[in-house]
Structure formats: structure tokens, C-alpha cells
Amino acid sequence: MTKKLIPTALAAAMLLAGCSLIPTYERPAAPVPTTFPGDPAQPAGQAAASLPWQDFFTDPRLAGLIRTALANNRDLRVSVLNIEQARAQFQVERSALFPALGLTGSGSRSSPNSLQAFDSSAGSVASQYSVNFGFTAWELDFFGRIRALKDQALAQYLATEEARKAAQISLIASVATGWLTVMADNELLEITRQTLGTQEESLRLAKLRFDNGVSSELDFQAANSALETARAAYAQQQRARMQDENALALLLGAPVPADAVASGPKGLDSIQPIPDVPAGLPSDLLAERPDIRQAEQQLIAANANIGAARANFFPRVSLTSGIGTASTEFSGLFDRGSKAWSFAPTVTLPIFDAGRNIAGLNSAKAGRDIAVAQYEKSIQTAFREVADALAGRATLGEQVRAQRAQADAEGVRFKLSDLRYRNGIASALDLLDAQRSLFTAQQLAVNVRLLQLQNQVTLYRTLGGGWATREQG
Fold it and tell me: DSSP code of 333?
């Protein structure tokens, strides 16, 4: 009879453990328009989220840096370790669904109490030895509390996996942006060097004219001031170049190879083209952005936590059971007739807890509302980022064209002003003004071109591109 009782109780527990108090999850509606502003034209091509980063960043120098960063970046390494930690926590919560079997051996020896000390019939020492195999305080999950905690841990684990993908996307985009910045620094450094050479030639000419009485000291000092300004700009640009390379090295987690950031003959135009990607619809971001999926998994975890908080209002049933041997003599533990067993169910019903369970449920509900707001905010942030990148794609091309045309016009103006100055027709101030205007226009042209390239990287990132990787043959 006793042998049949334990399996019957376990079967009943398994049948009754189908109850769940977790609220039915419904994905909140996306709080953004159904299309991006301006309804931009969609270029043909593969969606960013499914486009491997190797096919988007085709320049071999940049591809090599990205591979280095993926292997060495410490922030990405922390994201991977967070996944391992969340997976272990999920296994901890899941293990509570099953009884923990163990083998226990115990022994005790005690002397009689003081009242028995005068009783000659009482033994001087009492002994008890036992060996048991079974489980202790296994909670039968009738109301789904443990399964709710398990579901919460699972959602948190999935959220950390999405966080790793989001970290990889951010890392790849940051490396690309940092590398483009260094390449732009090279071009700006070359422009500043050329300007410095021009100013040195202007100062030589101004001194020659001043020494021969052709021009006043005012022209000579103006040329000298322009030269020192160019030297200061050159030193500033050198510092910016070194600092940007240091920032890139931090992203890589390793020194930056010299050949990866060497200046090309055409500056930024020597970089292999970055393809345009279709924007799709805002609803596509729900499936393509890992950060949005991360926020949704956190919402699912908060929803499951409500189920665990609700289950605290109901009784908890725990079961302790074991089978083994017991004897008053250690040598008799395994003798015939020493068999012993135990079956001890325990029911705990909350009656008064000073409002603890109600407060726990209210806290869980507030946590879910917070997670809903954070999920909606992640969608709105993603929509804004894509919309800004699309606005940049629509306008930066024309800005680059206009800025380069201005630089070309300023180049012609400088040549004419220099010719007029050498022939004594124009003043030194006219020449210096033309030099400053040319230098500024050239710098702006490089900076706008850099913005255009970085905007392409930003659009790829905001559309969820960067975590898909092409298999290497």
C-alpha cells in the first residue's frame, strides 16, 4: 500500500501542475506611423538585417578591422558572458521543477537528560544511525509559480542573446565610423599640409616684396600671421588624427595596423563604395532590430513575473520522501529488518503577511507597465533613427556636390588672386582672404563627404544590419 502511495501522489502532482496564472501576452501596438516620413523611394537590394556585414563593408582594410574587433572587443565579450550567466540562471530556475534526489547519511549519540540521570534503568548513551535516499521539500507546482519564474528566466536569457546581437551591430558600425573618421583625418591633414606650404610660399614672397620696398610691413606681418595660423591648424589636425586612431584602437581591442589607416591618393573617394539598402516599413523593425526584440523579451519576462506574484496567494505544497535504513547500531544499518521510509507532504497557506503578497503583485504589474513603456520607446527610437538616416541619404548627396563645387570655385579664385598679387594688381589682404576661403571650403567638402559615408553606415545599423555574418568558405 505504501509503495503505491508515492507514485500515485507524484502522478497527481504532475496532472495538477498544469495551472498557470501568467497573463496572456499580447504584443503592444507599434506607436509609430506605418511609413517613414516622405515615403522615400526604396532602392533595390537585400534588406539590411539579412545582408552580411562582409557584403556591406567591402573595403578589405575595414573588413580586417571589423574581424579584429569582433575577436577582441571587451564590451562584446561581456555581452557573450552575460548570455552564459543568463543561461545558467535559467537552468537554475528550471531545475526547481524536478525533485532533487540525494543520499543522506546521519548518526547521533546523546546522553540522558538530568532527570534521567538518577534513573538506573536509563542507558548512559543513546545512538541512532540512518541512511536515506530521496528528495527534500520538493515544491509541487500546482499554481505555476516555479514555471512562471522559469519562463521569466528564459525570456531574460533570450533578451541577453538579443543584447549581444545589438552590441555586435553597434560595434561594427562604430568601427566603420571610426575608420572613416581616421581616413577623413588623413585627407584633412593633407589639405592642411598643402595650405601650410602655400602660406610659407606667400610669406617668402611677401618678405621679398617688403625687402625690396614693393609692399609695406603690414602685408608682411599679415602673411606671417596667416602662416602661424596654418601651423596651429596643422598641429590641431595632427592631434585630432592621433586621438581618433586611439579611439579606433579601443574599439578593436588591439593596436591599429598602419596599413589599414594609410591615406589613399584620393582620400575618402578611394574607399570602395558602400551599397544603399532599402528601408522597408517601420513594422519591419520589430523583427529586424535586436534591441527591439530585446525590449520585447524583457516585457515577456515582466509579464511572467506577474504569474509568479499571483501564485504567492495560493497554497504551496511541498513533498519530502525517502527510503533507506535505520538502526541504533552502526554495524546493523544494513541488517534484515532495518528498512525505513518516510513520506511527508507539507501545505503552507498564506493567511496574514502584512500585505507582502499584494505589494509583490502590484510591483510585478508596475514592472510590466514599465517594460511596455520601454518597449514602445525602443520602437520610437528606432523609427526616429531610421527617419534621420533616410533624411540624410536624401540630402547629403546634393550637399556634397555643392560643397565640392564651392571648393573648386574657391580654388580658381585663389589662383587668380595669387596671380593678381604677384603682378601687383591685388592686395595681400585679397590673397589671404582667398587662401582662408579655399582652406575652409576644402575642409567642409571633406567633412560633408564623411557625413555622407557615416550616414550610410548609420542607416545600415538602424535597419538592423550587422549581426548577420556570411559563412567563410
Answer: T
pLDDT at 346: 84
- 126 sits in which H/E element: strand 126-140
Cell 507597465 sits on residue: 369
**Run of H or E including 336:** none
**Helix (H), strand (E), coil (C) string for 394-457:** HHHHHHHHHHHHHHHHHHHHHHHHHHHHHCCCCCHHHHHHHHHHHHHHHHHHHHHHHHHHHHHH
H or E element at residue 363: helix 356-422
In this prediction, residue 210 carries a pLDDT of 82
Percent of the chain past pLDDT 70, that is, above it, reads 90
Please tell me the total number of residues recorded for the chain in this structure: 473
For 137-156, the pLDDT digits (tens) are 788 888 889 899 999 999 99
| Residue 69 in this model has a pLDDT that exceeds 60 | yes
Cell of 25: 501576452
| Model pTM score | 0.85
CA torsion 28→34→36→40, rounded to 10°?
150
Structure-block grid coordinates of residue 325: 535504513
133 Cα distance to chain centroid = 47
pLDDT at 431: 87
Sequence-distant (6+) residues with CB within 8 A of 29 are: none
- Which grid cell sits at 414? 585663389
**What region does 73 belong to: left with phi over 0, alpha with psi -120 to 50, or beta?**
beta
Cβ neighbours of 412 (radius 10 Å): 11
Most confidently predicted of 93-102, 254-263, 437-446: 437-446
- In 309-411, where do the E strands start and end? 316-327, 339-348
> Residue 409's CB: how many other CB atoms inside 10 A?
13
Grouping H, G, I as helix, E, B as strand and the rest as coil, residue 85 is helix
pLDDT of 112 higher than 80: no
What DSSP string runs through 12-35?
Answer: HHHHHTT---PPPP-PPPP-S-SS
- Eight-class DSSP state of 466: T
Q: What does the pLDDT look like over 291-335, one tens digit per residue? A: 999 999 999 999 999 999 999 899 988 888 878 787 667 666 666
Query: Identity (one letter) of the amino acid at 137?
Result: A
Residues contacting residue 133 through CB under 8 Å, at least 6 positions apart: 101, 102, 103, 104, 322, 323, 324
Helix (H) or strand (E) holding 102: strand 101-110
Using left for φ > 0, alpha for ψ between -120 and 50, and beta otherwise, residue 318 falls in beta
Provide the angle, in degrees to the nearest 10, between the axes of the packed helices 290-311 and 356-422.
170
**In sequence order, which ranges of 212-272 are alpha helices (DSSP H)?**
217-252
